[in-house]
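Input set for joint prediction.
Command: fold jointly, output tokens.
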Amino acid sequence: MRQDSTSFLDELGSLASIPIDTIQESITVADVERVLLADRIGREGFMILLSSAAGRRLEAMAQQAHSITVRNFGRVILLYTPLYLANHCDNSCPYCGFSAHCNIDRRRLSLSEVEAEAEAIAETGLRHLLVLTGDSRTESPLGYILDCVGVLRRRFSSVSAEIYPLTQPEYEELVRAGVDGLTIYQETYDRGLYSHLHSRGPKRDYRFRLDAPERACLAGMRTVNVGALLGLTDWRKDAFFAGLHAAYLQRRFPEVEVCLSLPRLRPHSGAFTIPIPVDDCALVQILLAFRLFLPRVGISLSTRESARFRDHVVPLGVTRMSAGSRTQVGGHVLEGRTDRQFDVSDDRTVLSVKESLERIGMKPIFKDWHALDAHGPQVVEGRSA
Amino acid sequence: MLSTDDVLTIGGRALTSRLFIGTGKFSSYDLIPEVIRESRTQVVTVALRRLDFENPGENMATRVPEGCILLTNTSGARNAAEAVRIAQLARAAGCGDWIKIEIVTDQRYLLPDNQETIEATRILAAQGFVVLPYISPDLMVSRRLVDAGAAAVMPLGAPIGTNRGIKTRELVRILVEEIELPVIVDAGIGHPSEAAEAMEMGCSAVLVNTAIATARDPARMARAFGLAVEAGRLAFRSVPGPVLCKASASSPLTGFLRD
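tokens >
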């Protein structure tokens, strides 16, 4: 295993003196055209694609992004679904429905409940699962998560985790248990705003969260998924840093499949006004800029977005989508028992999402990895099935 | 179809078609049978990672006709051990013994890891697999693959999905000259003319996925590739005349000898 002390934080530090606002204002449509004609798009080109000038060239960007995506990934979309194991949380993120200050029912699934949820999800045909917990090491310790993974791996060919940041040895335990992907969002790359939003709880540690994907890669995780929670601040900056974060991870860990998500703030049970809402045009621009800057990066679009919006933007660069999502603990079998982390916009069933994708000429797939150890689903004589 | 006196023999199987088809990028699995029919391919590669054994409707392998050879690939493998494990799972799943080794340790360029590929070839060939390793074209690596028991070598023409053609032409040409195993160009071929070019160079076959799967009419493009491969092979066997830089109309210096 590699052990070293480099961090994306160093790159962020080197960017601190760049006057992004001033540069953004000076960008013209001609600059955008120049970037669109380039063979390769670097950091400067990426910034140009996130500018307001580029917002006037969305169709040209979309044509290129679509073409690049088809060449690299075909017309294939991987479907997965989240499974919320627990909603206990020691943080007070004002934008999150699981925040410690939210007065909601708290619970943690028992292993038999996990089994029941797994059975219900597996019946939809999905083979990729994302397990989530709130940020509470006392209520949802790593041992509990590992036990859940042990149950889930029998039914799913790939299990990813979106949980509180761990140390490298802990990620190694997760990998040994069969977790092959990690999703962790920095929320915002703006350190000052981050400190303001996360003033208490373990999440206060900006660096520990920022370095989590790197620790996961060092631990042998196959896939890491990063992103910023869009709507907390100027999206042009947070999308820029999220893209650079993904590029950094690709460079440093070329064997790892790096993905970007575009989570847009959604209403939830708490009272929180979205500071700088991100409209549909902006979200599309971010998606296109990500794809043009990083042609091989995975891009994930969740049920935070509406069915109509998802159907339209999928061909522009998306490679994976959640479907049939429930954002409350036990949402698949124990429906309605607890509050949601956020409201989903696309509440279609897995089958409905699948059929919708097929109608627009995309191929939804349920399986894109096969666990290689003895604990995953077993193979059966398949060709003549 | 090519005459039966021109067969390509790999792993004891005699192939009359020299076009192998990939399946990873189609918009619907329903297209695959028609693409196979139109291309007249006899070898179809599928990724084990995509095979959903618990859901026959989503199991691409069920769309491959019995007469075709299923060439399972190890897409997703990052080292020799993972490729070996995937091959063994494929065999256990009834996918047969033909395995295309794909070991990629760089997700941006998807270039194969030749060193790990040699190791996986050695292990799998010893276990009785018909091993077709996907490689960056390299003579010494190819010689080691021969020693390791490979059934063919599959050099890339350009990075996967780029449709850029045979950018590695000079290196592939050396493999064709020096390696006694079939040389099958895999990856990069974007147009039927480039498939024909590979065949004219003396390659034994080509493998095409992106160019067919992402065409507006994949079945028609599959047919075009089938014809191009056949044309290129015929041209190679016909031994084309030499390529000259200048017109060569007479013998100005030695003509007097015939006066």
